[in-house]
Each structure stands twice: as C-alpha cells, then as structure tokens.
C-alpha cells in the first residue's frame, strides 16, 4: 500500500518551459488536491478534484491546469513556467471533503 | 471568516521535557481539526484529528491535543520530547462536506540534547 505517490521528486525548468507533475493514490479516495508550499506561507491550495470527473480552482490557480485522469490519478500541468512557480508541490487525497488528508512526498520545482 | 493561528513560529525544548505547540482557530461552524508533522524534505503526516467526538484526542508517537471550544484552541502536547520529534508542525481546520482546508503557517520544533 504505497499511499500517495508523486513524480518526479525534483525538477529544474527554464522560464517558459512546460511540465506535468503526476500524482496517484491507491486508497480508493474520492477527493484529490494539489498544494504548493512556500517558506513562511503554509500550504496553499492550487486545485482540487472532489470526485472523478470534476475539478475546481483553489486559492492560487493562475498558471496551472489539472486533469483528473481517473479515480487514482490527478495531474498538475504548468504550461509556461515562471520563476514565481518555484516551490514544493504536494498532492493529497481524502475520502471525502473535510476529512483527513494523506499527502505525497512532494516535488521540488525550481524555475530559472 | 475562518482562520488558523499558530502562536509560535519556533519552539525549542530539551530532550525529555514537555512539548506544547499552540493553535487557535476562528470559525462560525463546527470544525474538524488536525495536526500534521513534516520532517525535512518529506510530506505531511497526520498526527491526530478532532471530529466532534472526544475533546481529548490521542495521536501517534505520544502526541495528544485537547479541543477547547470556549477558548477556540487545539494545542498539541507531548509529555517528553524525543530528538526524532524535531520537525515542523501544522495545525489545520476543515469543515465537513467542503474541500477548503485552512493551514496554519507552521511551528518549527527544535529538540536540544
């Protein structure tokens, strides 16, 4: 039982490049989330998916897109990376809205 | 508006002494409350949760927290700190049926030998 997995663990991009961060969970959870973590700011929600087939914007969605590919997988895409998107990105899942979340190990992204 | 305040950004304790990490929340509704721990370069791990059952909640690794509605607090305690407890701790508020989780800005716990 791997829980929540994320790939890649580290990535360096040049400004303007694109990439997709992958997330998968094996707990049969309905809801999945993407957060970014910046020093001194806690975690901020980028997008979430309440259930398979739905996605909604969070607090800081600009510059990102998401896809809920199936119940297990939720990807985050940066179409044109900017230095302001340098951050650590965490994927999480929960069985339902408001319940405990389970987090992946994170992706450390640097945009130069 | 709902909010979470972690009152200390840094806490230092000696190994074997008690730990107290403070969290206050503001909410018009009955919240669920969580504490998470994050070790360096790792994801967040759930320590414990309060979801309107017992007000004293026991978690993993000897941690516990008490929900005090009158004080709108959910402080995290441990009787005796261990070196392995050195990490960052996050207090989180959520509401049943919603997808909004409010994270505190974190408390970094340092344990001195």
Could you walk me through the main structural features you see in this protein, from its secondary elements to its overall organization?
The complex is a heterodimer of chains A (112) and B (113). By secondary structure, chain A is mainly beta. Helix content of chain A is 0%, strand content 50%. Chain A has strands spanning 4-7, 10-13, 19-25, 31-37, 43-49, 56-57, 64-68, 74-78, 87-94, 102-103, 107-111. In chain A, strands 2, 4, 5, 6, 9, 10 and 11 form a seven-stranded mixed β-sheet that branches. In chain A, strands 1-3-8-7 form a four-stranded antiparallel β-sheet, with no helix packed on it. In chain A, strand 7 (64-68) and strand 8 (74-78) form a beta hairpin. Chain A is globular, with a radius of gyration of 13 Å. In chain B, a hairpin with a 4-residue loop joins strand 8 and strand 9 (73-78). In chain B, strands 2, 5, 6, 10, 11 and 12 form a six-stranded mixed β-sheet that branches. In chain B, strands 3-9-8-7 form a four-stranded antiparallel β-sheet, with no helix packed on it. A two-stranded antiparallel sheet of chain B has the order 1-4. Chain B has 113 residues and is an all-beta fold.
Question: Summary?
Answer:
The complex is a heterodimer of chains A (112) and B (113). Chain A is an all-beta fold.
Cα separation of the termini of chain B: 41 Å
Number of strands of chain A: 11
Strand-pairing-aware structural class of chain B:
mainly beta
**What is the first-to-last residue Cα distance of chain A?**
36 Å
The low-pLDDT segments of chain A are none
The rounded Rg of chain B comes to 13 Å
Rg of chain A, nearest Å: 13 Å
DSSP E strands of chain B, number:
12
Poorly predicted tracts of residues of chain B = none
The largest sheet of chain B is: 6 strands, mixed
């Amino acid at each position: 039982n791997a829980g929540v997995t994320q790939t890649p663990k580290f990535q360096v991009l040049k400004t303007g490049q694109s990439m997709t961060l992958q997330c998968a969970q094996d707990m049969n959870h309905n809801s999945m989330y993407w957060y970014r973590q910046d020093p001194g700011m806690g975690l901020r929600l980028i997008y979430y998916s309440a259930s398979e087939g739905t996605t909604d914007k969070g607090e800081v969605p600009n510059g990102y897109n998401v896809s809920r590919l199936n119940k297990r997988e939720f990807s985050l895409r940066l179409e044109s990376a900017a230095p302001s998107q340098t951050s650590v990105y965490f994927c999480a899942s929960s069985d339902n809205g408001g319940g405990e979340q389970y987090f992946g190990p994170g992706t450390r992204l640097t945009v130069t | 508006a709902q909010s979470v305040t972690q009152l200390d950004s840094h806490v230092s304790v000696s190994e074997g002494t008690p730990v107290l990490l403070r969290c206050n929340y503001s909410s018009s509704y009955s919240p669920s409350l969580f504490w998470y721990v994050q070790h360096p370069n790792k994801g967040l791990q759930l320590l414990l949760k309060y979801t309107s059952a017992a007000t004293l909640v026991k978690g993993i690794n000897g941690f516990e927290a008490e929900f005090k509605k009158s004080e709108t607090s959910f402080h995290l305690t441990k009787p005796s700190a261990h070196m392995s407890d050195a990490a960052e701790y996050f207090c989180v508020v959520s509401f049943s049926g919603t997808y909004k989780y409010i994270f505190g800005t974190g408390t970094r716990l340092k344990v001195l030998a």
